[in-house]
Design brief:
The protein has 5 helices and no strands. The chain is mostly helical and 163 residues long. The longest helix has 43 residues, at 47-89.
Length: 163
């Protein structure tokens, strides 16, 4: 998006975020505190002198909370879009997880348990490339179990013939 298309607030937030995260902002804040501390004897360490730094830092902190949240929301949305694009473009990825950030905490916990199970399947396979989704992992495990049952039944038949 071009700078012309951004509204004034968006440009302000971007500039403020960039500045407040810079070394210059830290240096400026440090200098303000030093100047305040040095001015203590001039103002006889009065309550007003203390109130200036307390009020100033409280107001700045209050505003920074909203600035940080706005920046975090934008970054989070951009990351989600990038992840969704990667999922959508990978033919082996499960499209069921696109936009999962809209799920409830309980639904996310359930999905997390599915992926823990997928990790368990991958450990059993000892090959991280074997399965690419919960469905593929389950089919793979089912095939392995059927193959195991077949081999086990063949072994049992041999045992029965031997005895």
């Amino acid at each position: 998006m071009s700078a012309d298309n951004k509204n004034l607030f968006e440009r302000f937030v971007n500039a403020a975020t960039k500045f407040t995260g810079s070394s210059w902002a830290f240096i400026a804040a440090t200098l303000v505190v030093i100047l305040w501390a040095v001015s203590g004897p001039v103002f006889n360490y009065s309550e007003t002198w203390q109130l200036v730094i307390n009020t100033g830092t409280t107001i700045i902190t209050f505003l920074m909370v909203f600035l940080i949240q706005k920046s975090q929301n934008k970054d989070s949305k951009a990351i989600q879009i990038k992840l969704n694009e990667l999922i959508a473009s990978n033919e082996k990825a499960s499209n069921r997880i696109v936009d999962i950030e809209d799920l409830t905490e309980k639904e996310l916990d359930l999905l997390h348990r599915y992926y823990e199970k997928l990790a368990d399947f991958a450990e059993e396979d000892q090959d991280i490339h074997t399965s690419h989704s919960i469905d593929a992992a389950q089919r793979n495990q089912d095939r392995k179990f059927e193959l195991f049952k077949k081999h086990h039944n063949e072994w049992l038949q041999k045992q029965n013939k031997s005895s």
